[in-house]
Design a protein that fits this description.
By secondary structure, the chain is an alpha+beta fold. Helix 1 runs antiparallel to helix 2 and helix 5 packs parallel to helix 6. The strands form three sheets. Strands 3-4-5-6-7-8-9 form a seven-stranded mixed beta sheet, with helices on both faces. A five-stranded mixed beta sheet has the order 11-10-12-14-13, sandwiched between helices. It folds into two domains: 138 residues, Fructose-1,6-Bisphosphatase, subunit A, domain 1 (Fructose-1,6-Bisphosphatase, Chain A, domain 1); 110 residues, D-Maltodextrin-Binding Protein, domain 2. The protein has seven helices and 14 strands. The longest helix is centred in the N-terminal third of the chain and has 23 residues. The mean pLDDT is 95. Bound molecules: D-MYO-inositol-1-phosphate and calcium ion (2 copies). D-MYO-inositol-1-phosphate (IPD) binds next to strand 4 and helix 3.
Length: 260
């Protein structure tokens, strides 16, 4: 990894701290939510945080592209593209439920090389740089030592179109409920991945996600020593919709449950 990755990391951190401060200041105040789809909310705070992130990153890397949740994609002409979820956990945010994050990843030559995820309420800042490890507030993190699914705390989430789609995660949830120690649905894919990376959770799966939900967090899990695939056990791609992330020891058991 060249020297430039640490400059990109520094700017990405500055950007998420700035956007996070804005989200934190407005958290708990009335916010106007509109529906993108029946159960899919967007607020002025999603837009506002995204503007902060794009402006900050563009100022330092004017030729880089953007793939963000709330704005049209920009291809750019430079050596990288930023994948951004400015507010991961919008439903939590709107309800005053204190769990949401900001996710920024850098893609270069088709590979995610950098990931930053920030929880503005706890001040936890997770980073991953390909080949250089993962950190939480500057300290190295690693995955949990749990070796059996029956002892594992597992997290998942439900797609926004669950009302209408058969890919609603209900069968998978029921299968895990009978086999894992316990299940959680926390409402922020990016933080779910980071919680696997730092060993609080042993595994995570989800069936229908966007690239900006997963790109940064998946790299952080890999750099923390974990395993990330799609639900079929194939190599992970942020463009592949599904994700299974674990400490590695329980990965095969998770894939077996998902294949039931
Ligand atoms: C959502 C969260 C949630 C997951 C949803 C995502 P958003 O992102 O990551 O945990 O279950 O599928 O869409 O809309 O809050 O950015
Ligand atoms: Ca998201
Ligand atoms: Ca979002």
């Amino acid at each position: 990894m060249g020297e430039s990755i640490f400059r990109e990391l520094g700017v990405a951190i500055t950007a998420v701290l700035e956007a996070g401060a804005r989200l934190r200041e407005h958290f708990g105040r009335p916010v106007t939510a509109t529906h993108k789809r029946p159960a899919d909310l967007v607020t002025e705070m999603d837009q506002s945080a995204e503007t902060v992130l794009i402006d900050r990153l563009r100022a330092d890397f004017p030729t880089y592209g953007f793939l963000t949740e709330e704005s049209p994609a920009e291809f750019g002409s430079g050596q990288g593209r930023w994948l951004i979820d400015p507010l991961d956990g919008t439903t939590n945010y709107v309800h005053g439920y204190p769990l949401f994050g900001i996710s920024v990843a850098l893609e270069r030559a088709g590979e995610i090389v950098l990931g930053v995820v920030y929880n503005p309420l706890t001040g936890e800042l997770f980073t991953g740089v390909r080949g250089c490890g993962a950190t939480l507030n500057g300290r190295p993190i690693c995955i949990s030592p749990t070796t059996s699914l029956a002892e594992s705390l597992i997290v998942s989430g439900f797609p926004y179109n669950a009302w209408k789609s058969d890919v609603d995660n209900s069968a998978e949830w029921r299968h895990f409920l009978k086999r894992a120690l316990s299940l959680r649905a926390d409402g922020s894919a990016a933080l779910d991945l980071c919680h696997v990376a730092c060993g609080r959770l042993d595994g995570y799966w989800e069936l229908d996600l966007d690239p900006w939900d997963m790109a940064a967090g998946a790299l952080i899990v890999q750099e923390a020593g974990g395993t990330v695939t799609d639900v079929h056990g194939m190599p992970f791609s942020p463009y592949g919709r599904s994700v299974v992330a674990s400490n590695g020891y329980i990965h095969r058991a998770m894939l077996e449950v998902l294949a039931l």
